[in-house]
Amino acid sequence: MKKGFTLIELLVVIGIIAILAGIVIIAVNPGRQLGQARDAQRWNDVNALLNGIHQYAVDFDGAFPAVIDNDDATVQIVGTGVACPATCTGQTVAVVCGANLTGTLVSDYLQAIPADPQGGSAADSRYYVDENQTTGRITIGSCDAEQSPIEVTR
Question: Over the stretch 83-136, which tens digit does the pLDDT of each residue have?
Fold first, then answer.
């Protein structure tokens, strides 16, 4: 008599392993985890841009870089050559061509203009900048946030 597992026993064990693996994959949700990691990078990038702009303002008696307009009806995409018309998810105001902050901020305040972790580039960072005409406050945000809007005003 030979000892071993029957085909039914093997299929039952494989089925149980498949069910457990499916539960673990659903619980971990790698797509969501990767989205959260990209959003964390976006938060860091937005804060770095805002800090660079404010450090510039400190050095120049409160003046923001000249390429940032203070038109409340628009936001500007940060980049060296954003094609018009630019798009930015979730914006209710017009999105206009890039605010090229490279010459103003890079080397003195930032190592490089940050780009979105999913498709951003030097030409189109996928981050936007806006100066409020009334308050003079600067807002930086992400066009491609995955979990919730990413925007910082200071």
Answer: 666 778 778 888 887 789 999 999 999 999 999 999 888 888 999 999 999 999
Phi then psi for residue 93, to 5 deg, are -105, 170
Where are the extended beta strands (E) located within 23-147? 74-78, 94-99, 127-131, 138-142
| Count of all residues that appear for the chain in the document | 154
Strands 138-142 and 151-153: antiparallel
Contact 116, 46 (CB under 8 A): no
Q: What band does 2 get if pLDDT is binned at 50, 70 and 90?
A: confident
Relative to beta strand 74-78, strand 127-131 is antiparallel
- Rounded to whole angstroms, the Cα distance separating 136 from 153 reads 10
